[in-house]
Amino acid sequence: MLCTYRCLTSAPQLQSQQPPPCREVVRAAEEDGGSRRVLAGAGFTRDPPESTAAYTAWANALTDADLTQQAWRECTVIQPTWFMSRATWDAVGGWDECLPPGLMGGGAASPSAASDGGGFLAVRPRRVPREAWEEHAYVALPEDTIFLHRHLAGGGRLVRVPEPLVLYRYSPGSQSWKMPRQLLLAVRVALFEECVLCAPASREAWATFTIWGAGRDGKAFYNALSPAARARVAAFCDVDTNKIGQVYPAPVRPPGGKAKSAPAAAAGGGGGGSGGGASADAASTGDAAGAGAAAAAGVKRPRTDMDDVPPAAAASAVAPPADVPKPIVHFSAARLPIVCCVALGSKGSELMANVATLPGVAIGVNFWYFV
User: Rounded to whole angstroms, how far apart are CA atoms 14 and 19?
Assistant: First the structure.
């Protein structure tokens, strides 16, 4: 007989006698008449306490609305606390445990989003058998990130018991710490194409869009997009007067002409500016984008051989010269929809205040935080 529920808490130790999200997921399903799939989780503590401190504080402070509205920043419900019905698991299709087409074997980038209706994750690859991982140079993927976004894109819900009911142990040998950051970015951007830019429910609304942040993170997001998706970027927006009025990518130097380089990538992160700081630290949950915060907390990310060999689809330092330059405008002149590539760090309140001034803005509909 097949099990009715799945509880993904094998590694951490539960601090409760009962799987903590069980009562919540059953209640949520009953309130919705069983018509909507629910992925439930719980608050958590870390062992040792100082590991991924920034991410832990952020994740445990999220509101119910934040679980969905900030899901593109990091996994808002950590995988070691997941509890769901078998139907929810089967509807998504379980874990994807192989490299997406175009990354397997270091191949070229994926098919065009315009031709196949999605990014390079749009066509679900066959899973790589475990015995073939080494033969195919298997690289760990953020299966929890992929699952969570496909769950939400399919109409699923997220619920969370706020109490810290799970003790989540930090392990320096975790696969998520070995994941190349550029591969993680490539997968996250491909998911954004699949679940937002090319999804039937939002494709028309996102036919053109703006990237908030003309610094390091905004440019990395742009460069990781497929060519068809880059063509849909109308502009960048920023608050930095040194960037406003410029374009990205910068015009290519003509033969024999004066060289003109692309605008330098900034590393600041506040107030709705270019934003280059690390986002909330979820490296140990399958999203390593916040490894900088882990380092600040005394947890050092182990270096691996894969750090020296970024995947073919990873974001490059300078965008392809064939791209049409995009204007960089003040955020007040930006047109929705917008994907925000500015870290919600120490000046996050200033950024959110600027976002709130945009007429018609709806977080989670025509505005997504990505960093």
Answer: 7
